Amino acid sequence: MEQLAQQLVNGVLIGLVYSLLAIGLTLVWGVMNVLNFAHGDFLMIGMFISYWMYALAGVDPLFSIPVNAVALFLLGMFVYRFIISKVMSGPGLAQLVVTFGVSIFIANFAALIWTPNFRSIEHTLLSGTWDLSGVKLSIPKVVTSIGSVITSFLLFWFLRNTRTGKAILAVEMDREAATIMGINTERINSLSFAIGSALVGVAGALLATHYYIYPFVGGTFGLICFCIVALGGFGSIEGAFIAGILVGVVQTLGGYLFDPAYKLAIVFLMYLITVWIRPQGLRGW
Amino acid sequence: MHAITGKQLTAGGTALALLIILPLVVSSAFFQHVMILTFMFAMCGVAWSLMGGFAGMFSFGQVAFFGIGAYASSFLLLTFNISPWIGLLAGGIISALMAAAIGYPCSNLRGHYFAIASIAFAEIVRIVFNNWKLVGAAEGLTIPMLKESLANFMFHSSKLPYYYIMLAFLLLAVAVCYYVSTSKMGYYFRAIKESHEVAEVLGVNVVRYRLFAIMISAFLTSMAGTFYAQYILYIDPESVMILPISVQIVLVAMLGGASTVLGPAIGAAILIPLSEYTRAWLGYKGTGVDMIVYGTLITIISMYQPAGVWGSITHLMRRAK
Amino acid sequence: MSASLLLDVQGVSKYFGGLQANEDVSFQVNPGEIVSIIGPNGAGKSTLFSCVTGFHRVDRGRIFFKGREITNQKPHKIGKIGIARTFQVVQVISDMTVLENVMTGGFLKHTRVADVRRKCEEVLAFTGLIEKKSFNALALTISDKKRLEVSMALAMEPELLMLDESMAGLTPVELQEMIALIRKVRSRGVTVVVVEHVMEAVMELSDRVIVLNTGRKIVEGSPQEVVANPEVIRAYLGERYHAVRQ
Lengths: 285, 321, 246
Fold this sequence. Notes:
With 321 residues, chain B is an all-alpha fold. Chain B has helices spanning 6-25, 29-54, 63-80, 84-103, 111-131, 160-181, 184-194, 196-201, 206-232, 237-240, 243-256, 263-282, 289-304, 308-320; strands at 141-142, 234-235.
């Protein structure tokens, strides 16, 4: 029973990180209908920025969060301006494939300059575990999850309460109407992509506190993200948040109850079953 | 799709004749290998365009059928000594049935939802095979060395037989695709691609025709997988069931022209030699430079020529009139 | 339930959550008629249309076509049985020519491609689009697109053609052309049911008019009867206008 509770808690903790990742992806999708295959690789870049700041300057990953956010924000803006915007008016297939190209490029470029080796950050400010009546909570994981929640809520707040944020929501709801209202949708596109990337950068810093860092780490996270975004309903930020937690829990519990080797398969199965029953995901539940 | 004109027939015949003579003239084993891979991906691309280009079902999970084809024939050969040719058929049937099994619940999925479902399906297949002791799990299967013969689907002394067999398979796929595209099924596929509602209103059983598309596509892709197994003689999940192969198939179709019959063949003719030769020249250090080039290539292609080469050719031809 | 009725709609009711879109609507259509269904916005015309053509399941009621029950059948089955329909927002197949679009409908009743092509060219001659048979469907004007939609439906060789607001957005000249086309369609032996807002077309075409309001059928009769009916006037123009007119 204790083990079950332990797994449940672990599931929620990783789920909250998934949530943060998924929110960035679904924001981009909702605003411009683009599924960013390179999302996981942006995460990888964020993780590496934190790693190098630690390895070269002794900066704790938590303090690299602002750097990550800014760096990935700029990267996102760059990728949007010079690559993605060029395919926006083309067929949907081109949009799907172009981010795949970017993904392959980034992952292999990283492998070239940093080698494919696994790295990790050993001594952070926060380490160790709490023992809460038998359930062990890894402190880095807990802080990561709290960081995720805080960042997510900051985003919610930004979208609902600032002028720019509301403009983003407007474009997400109805692009044409937003254009008629005078909103510069192209600017909103690049801003959303940049914000989505910044969120991933933050997630990267958080994950770097306890996860292995290597050039190809993005692949799996990216795929899981797609499932979460689809589960939450493409474009729904609240949906992505909840779906992230759900996937984290189901994946962890499933791996514990059945076979850890199938953890990823369980996530995919979850996606399939959900869209079979309810094609629009959790949206509107 | 229009009936073939005399001019097109002549052009096609010439191209075919060239392809038949080519390996006799260029005897480099590597070149022949690249051509064989090109034919293989062309076949998969043609199969993809049936469901993706025509019926609008953008699958990023074709590798599942490729892998199932490879494993089915190899397993039957290893365990029951069944001829790879029968294994070819068996693999195709199994793939088609699995395609129907996954396709049916996904009947209402379109666009990105369908794409992700296809990835989910293919990844589940890969993970299952990676852990399934019966088929070798992560270690895969090694196809036994049999006496060289057509019946054994095995040739040791030269790549030529493999070349011609793969070319024949490709021609079969092109013929099937062409036949479908000019028949009732082709029209119905294109209606489905436009809108499920429009198709239904015209009397099209959308669920049934989507299944046709996915099953035919799966069968053909599976044949390519069986060929691969008999050609390379070793298969494992990391070589026949990974996502990059699915993406390569989509790319090949997209580059050449996703909703045409011959487009994927052209796309393969450009992309495969490019990536194989890049890998040969740059990849040997294990640095992944070839993949960097590949990634750049994909990005540029998507940005500047999404309608595919076929689109450009027909555009130019129309301008020339 | 007479066997000579083409379409027999009995007590159809449809709810969406708390909203009652159709309540106990019944009407019949005889072979060879042109029947219009009219009513103010929100009257439930489109919902009724969708229920008959298989796009919505009914909550209550039954629908019969040529004596055979078709309640809740899937849309493609409805098409196969002999009912064709068009859409309010015209829908044609994008990457096909005009002829190919029509052929897609033609494959319902014929299998050989050459036969289908021939029959569909006849249809295009009938609807006046034969000159444009090789045009890409998207290159047509709205009026021609509507004509194309009708052609696609006719290629299915239906007994009943249901048109959803096909007069919307047409110029006066195009309107007359469309009216003429529908008359031609009826003279070919196809029964027509139209949902319409454009009263001019309703008056000129209809043998009978059915009026819906807030989900119910309120009046049925000849165009002249219906237009003079005080209840209908009230429904369209509101209580105050009617009171003023008294």
